[in-house]
Amino acid sequence: MGNHVIRDRIWESKKLSRCSKEAALAYPWIFLVADDWGRFEFIPRRIWSKVFGARNDVSLEEVTTWLGEYVDVGLLKRYSDDGELGAWTKFEGRPPSQRRPSQYPDPEELTSRKKAKRKGRASLGNAYGKDRSEQKQSGSRGGAETGAEEGAEGTPLLSAQPPGVPTEPPDVALRFVACFNAALERRVAVTPEIVEKVTGLMTAGYKPWQIVALPVLVEANGLDPKFRRELGAAILLRDGKHPRTSGTGKTSGATHWLERELQRADQTVLNRRQGSIASQFGVVEQLVQMGVQIKREEG
């Protein structure tokens, strides 16, 4: 970890002014995790432990949300090279000749090397939208013809994993809960049950970005106000295999929320707030490729 000077021009930073008050105040603390080149491992749990380990009034979920805000306003760039990495944009440190070597690759050089691969992934993103009618007519299950994979229930799954979305179940669970709190305006924490359910969905073939996006889709399609207040994060992760008993004593199959929301994605419209949350959590492009529409203006 490098030693950095934080300049007073952050007081006038337009990007920082677009962040929440809490994220802006935490920025100088989190900024210091970077090396001499402004790069670091983007693992919220480790950042939280390193930066706020001596405090008991800052939660992992808050740090995850703040990091998402920095990405959203352009203060922080996320990239990947066999692991999730981050780099502060327009980073100014010591003269290059005085900096210690970085153990992380330069994001711009990495982007250039992976340009062709990224284009290939982008073409896969059209599998659900462009070839969707062909899949329905032919009964194709994706594979070589469409370039798409399918989930356990036959829902086409985009194979491209958007940058910024973690891939390990515990980290996906953290991101899912942070998105749940943002979309439904709640304050819940990650539990072992949530991590277990996320692991089960990923094992069944669902992509991390789909799990992270689930709260936004559910919120966009409307919830009864009372049920919305009582809805638990773990409930959204039900696999639909286990029956439940209602208050009236009626037993029925549990709702497979993720499967349902993916099936009706092309009928879903996000308002401006929901679209902003989807962007903050790195899933907006994938949702659009699945047919989700985003209102640019309210009303």
Task: Write the SSE topology.
Blueprint (H helix, E strand, L loop, with lengths): L13 H4 L3 H11 L7 E3 L2 H9 L7 H14 L2 E5 L3 E5 L18 H7 L1 H10 L2 H4 L1 H7 L10 E2 L5 E2 L11 H16 L7 H12 L4 H13 L4 H6 L2 H4 L6 E3 L5 E3 L3 H7 L5 E2 L1 H9 L3 H6 L3 E2 L5
Parallel strand pairs: 8-9
Antiparallel strand pairs: 1-3, 2-3, 4-5, 6-7
Helix pairs in contact: 2-4, 3-4, 4-9, 9-10, 9-11, 11-14, 11-15
Q: Tell me the count of domains.
A: 2
**How many E strands?**
9
Spatial separation of the terminal alpha carbons: 48 Å
Please mark out the parts with pLDDT under 50 across 5 or more consecutive residues, or reply none.
Answer: 120-160
Which structural class matches the secondary elements?
mainly alpha
**H/E order of the elements?**
HHEHHEEHHHHEEHHHHHEEHEHHE
**Helical coverage, percent range:** 40-55%
Question: Can you characterise this structure?
Answer:
There is one protein chain. The chain is mainly alpha-helical. It folds into 2 domains: 8-94 and 105-113, Orthogonal Bundle (Arc Repressor Mutant, subunit A); 161-294, no CATH class. It is built from 16 helices and 9 strands. The protein has helices at residues 14-17, 21-31, 44-52, 60-73, 107-113, 115-124, 127-130, 132-138, 169-184, 192-203, 208-220, 225-230, 233-236, 257-263, 272-280, 284-289; strands at 39-41, 76-80, 84-88, 149-150, 156-157, 243-245, 251-253, 269-270, 293-294. A 3-stranded antiparallel β-sheet has the order 1-3-2. Strand 6 and strand 7 (251-253) form a beta hairpin. Helix 3 (44-52) crosses helix 4, helix 11 packs across helix 14 (257-263) and helix 11 (208-220) runs antiparallel to helix 15. The protein is elongated and about 60 Å long.
